[in-house]
Amino acid sequence: xxxxxxxxxxxxxxxxxxxxxxxLAERRKRIRERWRxxxxxxxxxxxxxxxxxxxxxxxxxxxxxELVAVAQDFRRLHEAGIxxxxxxxxxxxxxxxxxxxxxxxxxxxxxxxxxxxxxxNPAPVVKEIEGVRIAVGGLSVSHxxxxxDDPLKDVVYEADADFKILLMHYGxxxxxxxxxxxxxLSKDSLSKIGVDLVGVGHVHDxxxxxxxxxxxxxxxxxxxxxFGEKTVHPGFYYLEVxxxxxxxxxxVDIVPQQMKEEVVKTTELPNDDPTxxxxxxxxxxxxxxxxxxxxxxxxxxxxxFHKLRLRDAYAVGADSNFYFDLDSRGLHVSExxxxxxxxxxxxxxxxxxxxxxxxHELMRIAPTEEExxxxxxxxxxxxxxxx
Length: 387
What we know:
Strand content: 25-35%
């Protein structure tokens, strides 16, 4: 019996623009630990194959810390006699071929992993394991493909083997929005490629379906990476194969770092002290090991808005959680007078509009042209970065 671990979308070296250096370093450490669960599982279950279907790294030029961590893990697998096969995913492969090479090639050159670098030729490798001739081929991502392109067009998979595996990293028809501006693997192409198993990275939630004689497995990610993935179930696949084919398919769950998104409606906050009301809601849903995003949305009177101290509320969230984000883009001010109303019939303005109106009034009453120019520059800079 051949035992296999199939993983993808580990996104080592993930970057979060709003995280401070210390928090980012710890978050990256947690992501490495989730990836290492797949490695340790292969070691602890005497696997013979370890397959990685793209986006091992979150960027094509990962930091030395991540490169060394993977080198250590691949060496452990190699020393245990576990053969490692990898492809480059969307994040691993440079957008322009002239800007560099696939970082994964380092491990290929030292003999600790076999990396499939071509986007057109799967170049399957055939090995006999436990009396089973297994072929593993792979196609790295090509950024030259666009919407409507078929990455399997003209691809030929030829191998004399009992069980054939293909690794790819694209969206599969039915698992990604049909209007996505990217190539999508059609189910028809997958069913005709002539392999027993296709392991497909890219989509972060796991999936499994049968297309004719072909089993398609989407292992998903080993960690949640955005608040939009709060329903994703991280993990990887464990497989058992003999000469008769695929005998066992098990998705091994990984417990992710806690992640929560909470919507707070402005109508739920007290008008006399909205700041304390918001701080209380944040404390209710906080946890020191959690990534928390609070979305503040709805109308608020001008009087209440000027009592709202978002910086104070943010400080409470940042102190009470591993990471905290406060999104107030859905907040809008209504029933508030403008400093310089353009038309009396308008009773509702946005925060962006209020900033512009305040700047307009300050420029109007500025005593000198120099001061007026400073207010105008400040307004333009703020609005250019305000979201």
